[in-house]
Structure formats: C-alpha cells, structure tokens
Fold:
Amino acid sequence: MSPPPTLDIYIGYDVAERVAYHALCQSLVDHASRPIRIVPIALSTLGRLHDRPRIRQQSTDFSFSRFLTPYLSGYEGWSLFMDCDMLVRADIAELFALADDRFAVIVAQHEYEPRDREKFLGNVQLPYSKKNWSSVVLFNNARCQALTPDYVNTASGLDLHQFRWLESDAQIGALPLEWNWLVGEYPHSPTAKIAHFTRGGPYFAEYADCDYADEWREALARTVSVARSDAGG
Structure:
C-alpha cells in the first residue's frame, strides 16, 4: 500500500525529558523525505481524556497515554508512536513504507533481559515479556479501536504493553530491530535507524558518553542554531 502524503508521528512527551523531545523532532526533520506531522502526547494537553493516577512502576508521563494514538488519529490511516528518548538516523518514510494491512500494529519484537534493575532518574527497570515492543509502534488505526480512552485509562500496564487488547499475537507485525535499536542493550551498530536511549539518554550525566551521544548532541545543537540560507533572496 502507498503511505499517505503526510506521515503522522506521535511522540511521548515527558516534562523531565523535554530536551529529548526537541532533539528527536530535529532528527526526524533532518532525515525525512516526505512531509511529517509531529504531535506531542503531553499530559497537560489531554485533560480528562487521560486522568489515570500515576503509579510507582510508571517511568514516564506517557507510559500509558501512548496507547491513545489510534484514538487521537480518529482510528484512520497509519500513525507512528515513538518514545521521546530516541534519535532518528534514517528517513522515517522508510518505516512507514513497511505498513502492512495484515497487521494491527507493527513493532520491533525484542527478546532480551534488561542489564539494569534501575534506569534514569532512579526509575525501576521492570523485566516483562514484550518489553520495549511498545516504544516504537506503527499503528493500523482502524484495527486498534479497542484502545478507547476508557480502556486506556483503566487497563493494566501489562494488558496495554503486551498488546492483550488484540485478539491474538498474529496481529502483531515485525519491524527490523534497526528501527528500535536499544542503546546499551545492543552493541553499537552503524546501521541503526532509530537509536533508543532506553537506559538513559546523553542528556543525563551518567549516560553522556553512551553510543550515538555525539550524534544526539549535534541534533540538539541544530535546534538552537541560526544559519544563513544558501538560497539567497
């Protein structure tokens, strides 16, 4: 199938990692070959649409609100959700080109045991089946209508993150792992298309020298730079 003219990308926004959101947006724009529409999923904008109380196991503001992506898309077309702690190193249109109507969602299907029991800001690193599958999700929105605001507000974390709202795992397609490369869990790879700073990003002092950190800082620098246009006029 052909991707839509404009590619809809929803990014989890966390007040503790604002800088990560902006650097990720820059990296998306830097590499995109098609128009993109970026929507931050910020709790301050959702109001009563998402008012479930925060729990200790929740490491980010968007731990559960990410699953509102199909609803926010009007249950139409394809939308991509991404955690904010990422760096895009390739054309995101290539990811959308992997959309396949046989599936309700398409994700990188990781199989790993987290190295740490604690991650950034002292958050607990909880191991569970399908961990990090939901950090990059290409949603076939019309097939995700079980994700109503009421369900997202009340379902358990495992029901949401393990895709138990689908009829079966056969509805989950697979992205190449390069589209969600777990920094610090996987070895450095020059072919990683999305670097995911899942243990902690280079904006935290203890992860300042992690893989892809220099690239991330370069993307951040471009968000605050002013350059003379070469086009003239």
Q: What stands out?
A: The mean pLDDT is 91. The longest helix spans residues 18-31. The first strand starts at residue 7 and ends at 12. The domain at 7-223 is CATH 3.90.550.10 (Spore Coat Polysaccharide Biosynthesis Protein SpsA; Chain A).
